[in-house]
What we know:
With about 150 residues, the protein is an alpha/beta fold. The protein has helices at about 1-10, 30-35, 65-75, 85, 135-145, and strands at about 15-20, 40-50, 55-60, 80, 110-115, 120-125, 130-135, 145-150. About 25% of the residues lie in helices and about 30% in strands. The chain is globular. The protein starts with a helix and ends with a strand.
Amino acid sequence: MPIVKLKNYLDANHVKYNSVVHSQAYSAKEVSHITNTPEGELAKTVIVNLGHKMVMLVLPSAETIDFKSLRKSLRATDVSLASEKEFSKVFPDCELGAMPPFGNLYNMEVYVDEHLANNREIACNAGTHSEVIRLSYKDFDKLVHPKKIAITH
């Protein structure tokens, strides 16, 4: 079960969190509504190819990637969305599209949108389409050490 890996990691690091189990939902808008989480606090995980490696982007669920800003922030020209086929093997314990934003658990570099980094709390998929984890942004930052960059408008 995907959530076990994440919960064990949070527990081992003495992080306080809430787990919200909900009916299956696939879109961020649905998850936000079902879990009563503002879309600005719900973190969306997107995998992109940066040159010859995949990296994780974490952004507010209601936002979209501004590739011009992203390329400028990363100082890279070769940035594109990774296909599900490309990244599914990196997250074998997660349901497709429900990866938690803890790239460090999967040996993946993590970049967080500066807007999301301003939140007191964030919520994120926990590896399934039926559970969300809510924790302080400060704890997320402490555990993941994401690089804060401009990803959205």
